[in-house]
Write a structure and sequence with these properties.
This protein is mainly beta. It has strands at 7-11, 18-23, 27-34, 40-46, 51-57, 62-68, 76-82, 88-94, 98-103, 110-115, 121-127, 133-138, 142-147, 153-157, 164-171, 177-183, 189-195, 199-201. It has no helices and 18 strands. Strand 15 and strand 16 (177-183) form a beta hairpin.
Length: 209
């Protein structure tokens, strides 16, 4: 979680809840994921450097590194997922650039823009067993984007003409994709699933629309 100028990590690994400061210079939403070896990874925006930061626990303390934002205002609303090789995949927003993606699969950070819509928020990210990256986020309407193992992106509007509050995505072991979001009007919690090869099943009736 993140306070105004502070990123805080909370865990009940010891049988009770404990908190600690990861970074004093952090703000806005933060993304968190845990690797297979138990390493905790957090991504967040540093408002003083205007960049996207990755922090991780090395067993003794929190280490940090910049991901994106060299002379650029970026790193808003990040979400992170970890693949089977413990590489990180991050979705985040950059003003005047759009929705961006970063990964460190090659041992260093590589970034790209995959949706040039001028603003977005409420993102979540997941990785499937084939290495595909799935991310949901809100622009003027809920969107879903998928990056396949070859690095090609497909971006879809889930449902148009509606406002939403929050979006989450999860992938089953057989790579079926599920996402959820809340509609503003009427206030309804909505579940959707991707129908392979056809599009998005907007009302969960098994038919892509």
């Amino acid at each position: 979680m993140s306070g105004w100028n502070e990123v805080i990590h909370a865990t009940n690994a010891g049988g009770f809840w404990a908190t600690e400061t990861v970074e004093w210079n952090g703000s806005g939403p933060a993304g968190i994921a845990v690797a297979a070896d138990g390493t905790v990874h957090i991504v967040y925006r540093n408002p003083y450097e205007n960049d996207l930061v990755h922090a991780w626990w090395d067993g003794f303390g929190w280490l940090t590194e910049p991901v994106d934002g060299f002379d650029t205002d970026t790193g808003y609303d990040p979400s992170v997922a970890i693949d089977g090789a413990d590489a990180l995949h991050v979705s985040y927003w950059e003003p005047n650039e759009g929705r961006r993606y970063a990964n460190n699969t090659g041992g260093f950070w590589v970034t790209e823009t995959f949706d040039d819509y001028p603003w977005s928020g409420w993102s979540d990210t997941a990785v499937d067993g084939s290495g595909g990256v799935h991310t949901t986020y809100w622009t003027d309407f809920p969107r879903y984007a998928m990056r396949d193992a070859a690095g090609d992106w497909t971006v879809r509007t889930v449902i148009g003409g509606v406002g939403v509050t929050g979006m989450s995505v999860a992938v089953e072991a057989d790579d079926d994709v599920h996402f959820t979001f809340g509609l503003d009007d009427p206030p309804v919690l909505t579940h959707g699933t991707l129908v392979a090869g056809d599009g998005v099943d907007q009302n969960c009736d098994g038919v892509a629309e």
